[in-house]
Task: structure prediction
Amino acid sequence: MARVKKATPGVLASFEQIDAATDAIQALRAQGHKNLVVYSSHANHELEEALDTPVSPVRLFTLIGGLTGCTAGFAVAIWMNLDWPVLVGGKPAAAVPAFVVIGFELTVLIGALTSVAGVALLSILMGRRGIVYDERFSDDRIGVFAPASADTTGSLEQLFRTAGAVEVRHAMA
Amino acid sequence: MTVLAQEPIITQTHADVTRDVVATLEKPSRGYVLMLFGAIGLFLVGAITFLILVKDGLGHAGYNPPVFWSVYITTFVFWVGIGHAGTLISAILFLFRSPWRTAVYRSTEAMTVFAVMTAGLFPIIHIGRQWVFYWLLPYPNQRYLWPNFKSPLLWDVFAISTYLTVSTTFLVYGLIPDVAAVRDKVSGWRKSIYTWTSVGWQGTNNQWRHYARAYLYLAALATPLVLSVHSVVSWDFASSIVPGWHGTIFAPYFVAGAIYSGIGMVLTLIIPLRKVLKIEHMITDYHFDNLGKLTLFTGSILFYAYMMEYFIAWYSGNTFEQTTFFRRAFGPYWWAGWTMIICNAFVSQLLWFRKIRTNLTALFVISIFINIGMWFERYVIIVSSLSNDYIPWAWDVMNPTWADWGILAGSFGWFGMWFLLFAKNFPIVAIQEIKEMIPMPRKRGGHH
Result:
């Protein structure tokens, strides 16, 4: 069930109802718990609101990639035409309007690839490891994990059960 | 969410969705195996034809002065166009928050990738000397052999390469959470493969935060891309002075035609596929009704474009343009010209009726007409225009040969083979997006 090499200690609760999960998240946040990990089978805006999630910085990757692609597209076409002028259609060597398509295509290409690279970096490579997981979270359950030391797990379990968790597990280091 | 919840399209629970989609990846049915072998058979016909062309040269193809762009370029444009409906449904309708796209977008995205992959073969088949295809690419070389960046043909290299890369990225990216859901349901060696391909996805809040945002940006980037790609393809023709090609209407005309042909192919694929994969309850009349409306809309744009082409040819007073269009209707290619008009402009008008839009037999037959009509549209534009170009004594009629038909058949086999293999190995219905549309249970009852 759990695929953990070096587990982060804490409590993992499993929910079948969305409002039970959001109640638990809000109660945990009200008590000052941080670094919560919430599992769900799909993106859910109620969970996002309960967690008060900031906007992903992945947009910076898209912006930088897009601008790089645009610059590279025009630069390659202009440089090659100045290096070896192909003079056709009465156009100058560096015929910027004729290079708009190249610039546009590379904007899209590099922008898209850097966006995905950003997600890989932020959520996979830099993502937290060693958090317990349950395979039902990709099906119909919502998981909420709160890191905790051994002396606070009891109160956390109580909080989760009160909110409506159907299953609570303790993860030890 | 309230609006989506009112749609009576999905009656399953979240667990049902995972179970039903994972079931499509189990042992193939007889119908599936027959379709796959049919596709492989067609592909082999194309592969053998290609080997003969490589051995003997392009002489076997129907190239004959003045027609040096014929069936291969026709088929190239046809397959590029097919891809467009996929991006429309997956990216543009995502930005419009259209709920009906969720059940069909994965299959259309896969169709896009394999159609563009198929299209990419054709310039290489067409050039004859495949072993120097890399001369098309701008790379530093000792002979300063720079391609002409002012030519739409080079723009096309960039456009198609970008389109293939971004479409593939979009497809693979969207698959990750669904592959993770499959990983958690299967066992043995299949679990190892899906574990590897789900790249550590666990559906944490952090992963969804970055994933959803990047998906939005990918859709936003893919939207102008799809409109640009067929515009650039159209400029391959429109920026020349060949009568019948030199029209400012070409970019929107090509884009509408591409989407129209793509939806035709979507219908051809998913009507039998939903049966062999037993997902009739997931892709329903509701989806076909909407696909039918989109077909009607784009088909009507084409109808208008056809009328405008003829009107402008007459109104321009340009003898060459008038002659070209007269020959399209009454010259040696009249049969191709009328096939195009009947299949595209007229047949699509049947979709004004809801009964037809929700009758799958009728829709399937119409989709075949669309495929035929749209292939002939490109054939008419390319071949009939070239056959009477600048010098009347050079005018000639090009007739496709066995080598043309063999490669065309092979392209359908190649495309179908990859599509069917994909459908049996990866979720053909987007699990996580369908789940987004299903309200989650609440302890306090009701919906959000």
